Amino acid sequence: MRVLALSRYGRLGASSRMRIYQYVPVLQAMGIEVEVSPLLSDNYIRRLYAEQTTNWLGVFHDYLMRAVRLLSAKKFDLLWIEKELFPNLPAWFEQALRALDIRYVVDYDDAIFHNYDLSSHPVKRLLIDKIDKVMRHSALVVCGNAYLAERAHSAGAHHVEIIPTVIDLERYEVGGPLSRDHFVVGWIGSPSTAKYLDLVAPALKALAMEFPLQLRVIGVQFSWPGLDVDCRSWTEDSEVDEIRDFDIGIMPLIDSSWERGKCGYKLIQCMACGKPVIASPVGVNREIVIDDVNGYLASTADEWIQAFRALFLDAQSRAAMGAQGRRFVEEKYCLQVTTPRLAQLFQHLDE
């Protein structure tokens, strides 16, 4: 079976790396040949994370190259599309695939339909039902959580499956006991998601008066007066070692439509390294975090303070929760569990 994977980004894009690239070698070992063709270059991602202006000439070139790539679509048994073929353009190309009897799977790990239906931009508002059309014309919609799957069902998609965003167990080892005189509260992400850290600033600053603690931030550069913040660059090779050096992993979120579509990947990474977690009870976080088992759910500043204090004061509890989290990932949130399901879905479409 030959599959053309049309990812949005190259390996530098977290969503593409987790939803498509990490599956390629495992699927190929199962007899499914996957060729990946990203839409936007790694240079686009570098400029985005550096908060530089978009190179629109480069984007136009990337769109043109994708259009050329689609001319070979008939050579493949299946197209595997991440989110949509051309962001901010109508669903004409997906509809053309359906008209030409070219089957495609579309994959979502974010509520990108809200880029259109909740946008205030007049042009984007014209595309309010674009993602619904993309879903409806697909042979299969693969969603990272129930919120996304519910939208696919309401859009009239014929076949919808939930496959969470996961890690590869072979890359993630449990961190050993940490010997130091301070606690490291860890967060990993991109500049676009760093805003959520503001939700825990009051709790961390209050606790810094009681405990020697540090906020370790991977992937973003910033500082907070009154708090020890250690910002480190992200690389694919170093991210696991960085997480293994956390004492606690966190994932604060606001409770709004976009955030309900997130897949909790930060939590899964931390749990895979045997770290207890604290998270906002938003969307899939409520499924990943089992309160007082593998971590804590916290909404208010007082709840964050209570959760932090409980973990700071009890090393045995931190270890037990971390072990529970690792087992949970092994059972549900790893490549070793989800790849056979994905392969079976693809092969069924090829029958």
What labels describe this entry?
single chain; 351 residues; alpha/beta; Rossmann fold; 2 domains; six-stranded parallel sheet; globular
What are the SSEs and their pairings?
Blueprint: E1 2-6, H1 14-19, H2 24-29, E2 33-36, H3 42-49, H4 56-69, E3 78-82, H5 92-99, E4 104-108, H6 114-117, H7 122-125, H8 130-136, E5 140-143, H9 146-154, E6 160-162, E7 183-188, H10 201-207, E8 213-218, E9 229-232, H11 239-244, E10 248-251, H12 257-260, H13 265-272, E11 277-279, H14 285-288, E12 295-297, H15 301-313, H16 315-332, H17 335-349
Parallel strand pairs: 1-2, 1-3, 3-4, 4-5, 5-6, 7-8, 7-10, 8-9, 10-11, 11-12
Helix pairs in contact: 10-15, 13-16
Description:
This protein is an alpha/beta fold and 351 residues long. The protein has two domains: 2-166 and 335-349, Glycogen Phosphorylase B (Rossmann fold); 183-332, Glycogen Phosphorylase B (Rossmann fold, 3-Layer(aba) Sandwich). The protein contains 17 helices and twelve strands. Strands 2-1-3-4-5-6 form a six-stranded parallel beta sheet. Strands 9-8-7-10-11-12 form a six-stranded parallel beta sheet, with helices on both faces. Helix 10 (201-207) packs across helix 15 and helix 13 (265-272) packs across helix 16 (315-332).
